[in-house]
Amino acid sequence: MSRLAQSAFVPAVRREARPAGSDSPDEICPVCKSSRYLNPNLRFLVNPECYHKMCASCVDRIFSHGPAQCPIAGCTRTLRKPRFREQTFEDLKVEREVDIRRKVAAVFNRREDEFEDTRAYNDYLNDVEDITFNLINGIDLEDTERKFADYERAHADEIKENAELESQEQSSYRVLQKKEREQIRLRREAARREEEEDKRLVEENRREQLRRLAAGQDASVVEKDGQQVQLKRRMDRRAAEERQRQLHARDAPPTPVTNGATPFIKGLKQRKGKEAEPPVDAFDGIRYKHQYYSLQDDYTYSFLDNAKKDARILAGGYNVHEYNERALADAFAGLGVFIADEVTERAKLSHDIEVPTEMAATEAQDVKMEDPV
Amino acid sequence: MKFFIEDLPILFPYPRIYPEQYAYMCDLKRTLDAGGHCVLEMPSGTGKTVSLLSLIVAYQQHYPEHRKLIYCSRTMSEIEKALAELKALMKYRADQLGEVEEFRGLGLTSRKNLCLHPSVKREKSGSVVDSRCRSLTAGFVKEKKERGEDVDLCIYHDNLDLLEPHNLIPAGVWTLDGMLRYGEEQKQCPYFTARRMMPFCNVIIYSYHYLLDPKIAERVSRELSKDCIVVFDEAHNIDNVCIESLSIDLTEDSLRKAARGAANLEREITQLKETDADKLQNEYAKLVEGLREADEARDEGAFMSNPALPDDLLKEAVPGNIRRAEHFTAFLKRFIEYLKTRMKVLHVISETPPSFLQHLKELTFIERKPLRFCAERLTSLVRTLELTNIEDYQPLQEVATFATLAATYDTGFLLILEPFESETATVPNPVLHFTCLDAAIAIKPVFDRFSSVIITSGTISPLEMYPKMLGFTTVVQESYSMTLARRSFLPMIVTRGSDQGTISSGFQTRNDPSNVRNYGALLVEFSKLTPDGIVVFFPSYLYMESIISMWQGMGILDQVWKSKLILVETPDSQETSLALETYRTACSNGRGAILLCVARGKVSEGIDFDHHYGRTVLCIGVPFQYTESRILKARLEFLRETYRIRENDFLSFDAMRHCAQCLGRVLRGKDDYGIMVMADRRFAKKKTQLPKWISSALMEADANMSVDQAVATAKRFLKTMSKPFPIRMQEGISTWSYGDLMQHQEKLGAERDREMRMAGAYEEGYEGVHGDQVMQEAQHAEDMIDDDMDDAMLGMDV
């Protein structure tokens, strides 16, 4: 049963797959004319420059010494070896289309929630599809490519941001999936254990009954007891099941993923990071407020007029406003302070503090004495 | 016979009624009054259909709401039977009431069965008939004709337009044959007559699929109102029907065809662009607006419809990237290529739809949303292109449906890719199973929409399994036993051979010679003692073949041959029907015969072995499903996780319902008799899972027998059966005349009164089990025993 693991298909497993386009046994490499019939291990590679198919040995032979021209007649592209790869799709046109789509999708990655309504989003999708379609089929290639590049340049930031979101979503989805798989495995195991336990109990009960019968006890009593034991166990199990169900219900996410709902749990901190951080507050919330005067924007001092305009002074960061503020603060500093009051206050305070410290000291000593170690 | 259930007058077309029929009707009425769903099990051959119809028709005619009845059955023959019953019932009603009621009852079946067009009806395959019919009847074909183009039209279909749309066929009950005949006379198409008259019918009788398969239901059964009464008869397999209607299998071949279909579409689009670009532009504009033509769904000729889409989604506009026709075909092509690539993998994969979508997106940049609209977009495109050769696009449609389903449902479905046909095969022949695991998905719209759904069958035990699996709650859940004046069928469980060795079809012992010999001895003995026909059921074709060849080697078949002819069911339906015919002849002319068949085959469902066609049914082995199948395993797992149904419970339930179905084949009425033998050690523990009517007749002493004991009991049983049993002996016990029924009702009434009185003495607000109905009765009873009540109340107050 457990063989039926919900193994997700990972592209890396492709090694086990039949190579794409290997349906006909007498496939021939267009370059060296070797066929699969003679060489069953023939592997075909394509280069996303021109999508011409050739066998792996030809690729080795021609491109090992650096870039070379495509050996297919009529193709003038220069190919490099590292870019050769196995084709994913049987149809090379689709292969190419997907490559183009990859490029487009990396740039046009706006999300539905960026749009005001579905209509706008759909229009956007339509436009993107138009561009993609043009790129694929080579309609107005220059124009489209220019549009494409313009968009990329204009929205570089947004593109990056959305790509980040996308990858975040994917990773969170992967985590979720992993967790789910783990849960399924656990549940399966639990069910198996339960079943085994059941079997064991039944067997035990039977053996117990036999033992008692062998010991010469009354058959009807033994049978009744056995039934009771079994009934009790069944009730226990039911209760346990109920418990498990409740547990399960609690585990389940508050909004069950139902038909049509988006299954991807969006990373919760998605948009939060974008909010501007609050400014650092060095004084921890204490604000200096001037109560005795109000600061004007501008004061007329003849000797400061120069400083307001002179580039030599301003360049250093001198700010007349700052000067005003400071001058006023100096002038009014100490106006709200009454020394006599403060002195008496301090005297009282110091007295209050002394007493508890004494007490604390004695207490500490007591503890110390009681301490056996 | 005319009688009342509470205030409802019922006309029953026979002079006598069975007690269980009466009980069945009472429970039905209770369900209809309460407005909920119910599960009812009534033994086969006790007139389930007629009691159902007579009650519901009476209900319709008596109450002002005139709730429509939708009666769904499984096979053509059952549909025809039900129509005939209905016709007889209505005739009886007309005789009794002295007037013909304004009443319409119609049956609907596929185009293939109802076509009258001289050339189309000769086609063999149903899908070809469908598509040819569409090409002659679709709306755009007619428009073309009006524009003066030279196109063929179906005259039968056209004639319908000349008639009043709500009166295409006179009132009355029309059997399928009757419809065909009337259609031929009036030169009108029976299929479209039935389809268009559905809103004006009192009773509609058709196959499950018209209601359960979301692809069809959306089109056919859309306009049925909420208060319809829906009946699923022979519903013991309903969960499988639900699952099959949403499961899709894709092979490499079908993908290739789908790819060809997509290429054809592309060609059509370029053609249309050159000739009539406006049409595509119009479609595009409509899609942009997110408008759906109001009459689209009503379009009878539509190519396909949406498989079970949530309503909110249907209102949404098609995503922008598949709005243009050429974008959509490119999209389809990409999707098909992707599937092809997946098929190349050489190991088994099972994955959930979300993980499939994830991978799909990584590889081909197909998002979930456009995928979900795939089916709908394809329909719209096909309509715009006005394609007529629709059968070529069937594989493409399948792919589109698959896409839509996979993108719509996250749970309840599983993709299983099996690269090899069997474990030992070396040449890959991949199949992509997209299996539905949850029967509740397909049937949910039915339960949501209709207030009363009645699920009934001869064998639907254990009853509580069905509400659990299908996700609904019941008002009434009842199993009736069969009232019999004498014990007319003998169920037995044989667990040991004459040599006291246990017999079982379990995997470890199934091919042991001693086991096989014991089974053989059982067959030989019963072939000697049974008159006329014997039906033997095996768990699978494979086991049947191996056991028959072993019997041949042991000389057992030679012994059987002396007393009976041996016939075998094969997977081929024509061979089987030939075997059946021979079997019937042999039974009728006294030679006697044995039919060896399979518990899940064609014979086990729907073919009756009444009277001398089946006097003994032998069930050799418990008919478990093939448990190594990946699809079954996935479903079991799903059932455990979602509905808390344990694997073994489900397997055993499934085996026993098939077993009960097999056993029920032999007894088709009260004057019939037969022996039912379950030959497997494991049956001894499973007897509680048999339907009530069988298990109540199964004596404790007969539940654990050896072959020789079984033979002795069977002989004794057949001797009692051979005594003449005049029909009047049954009266009052297993059949009631009007007088008996009145007596019964009086007795019940008296009992209820007593209960009332007692309950009244306890407390005023008497709350019964049956909610509304009991309250209603209480009201009624209160009027009668008002005085007593008052006294009692006074006494209590003081």
TrEMBL record, chain A:
Sorted UniProt keywords: Coiled coil, Kinase, Metal-binding, Nucleus, Transferase, Zinc, Zinc-finger
Principal subcellular localization: nucleus
Entry-linked CDD domains: RING-HC_TFB3-like
Pfam families xref list: MAT1 (PF06391), zf-C3HC4_5 (PF17121)
Domain named RING-type: residues: 29-72
GO BP, one annotated term: regulation of transcription by RNA polymerase II
Protein name per Swiss-Prot or TrEMBL: RNA polymerase II transcription factor B subunit 3
TrEMBL record, chain B:
Subcellular location: Nucleus
Cofactor(s), by name: [4Fe-4S] cluster
Coiled-coil residues: 248-297
CDD domains for this protein: SF2_C_XPD (cd18788)
Keyword annotations: 4Fe-4S, ATP-binding, Coiled coil, DNA damage, DNA repair, DNA-binding, Helicase, Hydrolase, Iron, Iron-sulfur, Isomerase, Metal-binding, Nucleotide-binding, Nucleus
Protein's GO biological process: nucleotide-excision repair; positive regulation of mitotic recombination; transcription by RNA polymerase II
Keyword Methyltransferase: no
UniProt catalytic activity: ATP + H2O = ADP + phosphate + H(+)
Pfam families with a match to the protein in the record: DEAD_2, HBB, Helicase_C_2
UniProt GO MF annotations: 4 iron, 4 sulfur cluster binding; 5'-3' DNA helicase activity; ATP binding; damaged DNA binding; hydrolase activity, acting on acid anhydrides, in phosphorus-containing anhydrides; metal ion binding
GO CC entries: nucleotide-excision repair factor 3 complex
Domain Helicase ATP-binding: 7-284
Main location: nucleus
This protein's record includes keyword Metal-binding: yes
EC number(s) reported in the record: 5.6.2.3
Superkingdom assignment: Eukaryota
InterPro entries linked to this entry: ATP-dep_Helicase_C, DinG/Rad3-like, HBB, Helic_SF1/SF2_ATP-bd_DinG/Rad3, Helicase-like_DEXD_c2, P-loop_NTPase, RAD3-like_helicase_DEAD, Rad3/Chl1-like
Family from the record: Belongs to the helicase family. RAD3/XPD subfamily.
Protein name stated in the entry: DNA 5'-3' helicase
Source organism: Polychaeton citri CBS 116435
